[in-house]
Amino acid sequence: MGIKQNIEELKSKIPSEVTLLAVSKTKPLEYLEEAYKAGMRDFGENKVQEMAKKAESFHDDVRWHFIGHLQSNKVKYLVDNVHLIHSLSSISLLNEIEKSFGKANKIANTLIQINIGREESKSGILEENLYELIEAIEKCNFVSVKGIMVIIPIGDEESNRKYFRKTRKIFDELKEKEYKNINMNILSMGMTHDFMTAIEEGSNLVRVGTGIFGERNYNLGGESNE
C-alpha cells in the first residue's frame, strides 16, 4: 500500500480526538509531500538540522515536532522551527530551552519525556526525579509543558499496557494539580506496533513512522521513537 492508503487506514482506526503524528525522520521530502496531500500536518523529526532544513523548504502550515534526544547545544536551532518539543528530560536541558527561547522572547511548548521502563539505553527523566524537574519548570518564563511522552520497553501487549497505565497514572496525578507552566493536555504514547493499545490506555497522540512510510531502508542509530 502507498502512503496515502496507509494514512487513510490509520485514520479509520484512530478516534478523531487522537493526533496522528507522522514520524518523518530520514524520509525525503517527496514522501512527506505525499503524506501532506493525504491531510497530514503533524510531522516528527529527531535530528535538529534535518528538521530545520525540511521546515525551510516545506509547507508553512506544517507543525514540526521534535521527538529525538535533544542536545543542549542544538536547542537554539529549534526556536523558529518547532511546534512541540517531545523530549524535555533534564533540568540542564530545561535551562538551555529557557535561555534560547527567552532570547527570542518566544514560548517553548514541550512534553516531559519520562523513562518509564528505566532503560539505560533510553532518554527521559526517572519518576523519582520528576518533581525536582517540575519545580524548575515552574520558575521558567519561556517554557510551557503540555503533557508527557514515553517510549516504552519492547514487550508483549500485557507489558505494553502495564507501562501505558503507569504513565497515564502520572499524567492524571499531574493534571489534578495547579501549576503555572504545566497543563497536562497531551499524552504521547504508542507507535506503529502498539498505538491501538496506547489509545485504549489514554494516549491522545501517537507517533507512527513505519505504519505510514513503510520500513526504513537504513538505520541512523539512536533510540527508536516510532
TrEMBL record:
<keyword id="KW-0663">Pyridoxal phosphate</keyword>
<dbReference type="GO" id="GO:0030170">
    <property type="term" value="F:pyridoxal phosphate binding"/>
</dbReference>
<comment type="function">
    <text>Pyridoxal 5'-phosphate (PLP)-binding protein, which is involved in PLP homeostasis.</text>
</comment>
<comment type="similarity">
    <text>Belongs to the pyridoxal phosphate-binding protein YggS/PROSC family.</text>
</comment>
<feature type="modified residue" description="N6-(pyridoxal phosphate)lysine">
    <location>
        <position position="25"/>
    </location>
</feature>
<dbReference type="InterPro" id="IPR029066">
    <property type="entry name" value="PLP-binding_barrel"/>
</dbReference>
<dbReference type="InterPro" id="IPR001608">
    <property type="entry name" value="Ala_racemase_N"/>
</dbReference>
<feature type="domain" description="Alanine racemase N-terminal">
    <location>
        <begin position="3"/>
        <end position="216"/>
    </location>
</feature>
<dbReference type="Pfam" id="PF01168">
    <property type="entry name" value="Ala_racemase_N"/>
</dbReference>
<dbReference type="GO" id="GO:0016853">
    <property type="term" value="F:isomerase activity"/>
</dbReference>
<protein>
    <recommendedName>
        <fullName>Pyridoxal phosphate homeostasis protein</fullName>
    </recommendedName>
</protein>
<keyword id="KW-0413">Isomerase</keyword>
<dbReference type="InterPro" id="IPR011078">
    <property type="entry name" value="PyrdxlP_homeostasis"/>
</dbReference>
